[in-house]
Structure formats: structure tokens, C-alpha cells
Write a structure and sequence with these properties.
Blueprint: H1 7-18, H2 29-36, E1 39-43, E2 48-52, E3 55-61, H3 66-82, H4 92-110, H5 113-116, H6 125-136, H7 140-160
Parallel strand pairs: 1-3
Antiparallel strand pairs: 2-3
Protein name: IrrE N-terminal-like domain-containing protein
InterPro entries: IrrE_HExxH
Organism: Domibacillus iocasae
């Protein structure tokens, strides 16, 4: 069985390898921001990103858990890397599409396929979710969604051939 990565999976792996990220322990907002040349700040408010020319800033809600901050960092990074303009000026459909894209990006960015496939996961689903959540520093529900997605992709490859 040969698994072919999606464009998004390849894009994220390329980002990580280009900045020398090869281990889950390196996956922190501070580490990634520093390597990408982004300014990272913690605020008492909603997480968001701002881009002014060459200057890119991600602001994370300081009141969230570190796992939630990591997930929001990835969400906001998607907006910086893959979207342009001010979301407040977008028609509702495009706003919804960008938010869906950012959610999908965050799942793959926080738990990248090239690192996920290296894990020795148990057949017990709850245990596997716990391993993923702990290894990648994400919330349990987030890890569960990513595992479900990963298992679906693998089953499509298996049953599609």
C-alpha cells in the first residue's frame, strides 16, 4: 500500500523541513515563530494575525491553555501563509471557506503527517488519541479529529487499491 500525501501535507512538511523542524518536541508557537521570522505576542483578547508589508504578527489569547494556544497559532498562521486581505471585507461564503481552510491547516500543522506516521500507535483508539495529544501538545478532541482524518485517509488508500 502506497500512501500519497495531499498538497496540504506536502506543503506543511516542506515548511517544517525548510526551517529544520523534525521532532514533535520542536512544535511550539515560540519555536515556529522564531524560525519563520514572525512576531509572536500574547494578549488578553481574541487570537488574531496582522500583516503589514514584511511585518507579520500573531497574537494569541494569553488565557488559553498551551494546547489551545498552539492550535490557534496554527490557525492564524494559515491566514498569514495562505490568505490575503482583511477578512472583515469578505462575503460570508468566502469567510466561511477561509475558516474551514484554516481549521484543516491547523489539524495538519499541529499534527503533521510526516511525524504522525512515525508514531507507534496502539490499536486502542482512546489510548492512541492520548498518545497523539501528549506527543503533539494538542487538546484531546483535536487529536481525536486528526486521528479520525488520518484513519480515513489510510482506509481510502487501502480500499481504493
Amino acid at each position: 500500500m502506497v500512501y500519497t500525501k495531499t498538497h496540504l501535507e506536502d506543503f506543511i512538511e516542506s515548511i517544517y523541513t525548510n526551517i529544520g523542524i523534525y521532532h514533535p518536541r520542536q512544535l511550539t508557537p515560540e519555536e515556529i515563530a522564531a524560525r519563520l521570522g514572525l512576531v509572536l505576542d500574547y494578549v488578553d483578547g481574541t487570537s488574531k494575525c496582522v500583516e503589514l508589508g514584511q511585518f507579520s504578527l500573531i497574537m494569541l489569547n494569553q488565557n488559553l491553555s498551551s494546547a489551545a494556544q498552539w492550535q490557534e497559532f496554527a490557525h492564524e498562521l494559515c491566514h498569514l501563509l495562505r490568505h490575503a486581505g482583511n477578512q472583515h471585507n469578505l462575503p460570508p461564503f468566502f469567510l466561511k471557506m477561509q475558516e474551514w481552510q484554516a481549521k484543516s491547516f491547523a489539524l495538519h500543522f499541529c499534527i503533521p503527517t510526516f511525524l504522525l506516521e512515525k508514531l507507534d500507535l496502539t490499536d486502542n483508539k482512546k489510548s492512541a488519541i492520548g498518545i497523539i495529544a501528549q506527543t503533539f501538545g494538542v487538546e484531546y478532541d483535536f487529536a481525536e479529529e486528526r486521528l479520525e482524518q488520518w484513519l480515513l485517509q489510510c482506509s481510502i488508500v487501502y480500499y481504493g487499491n
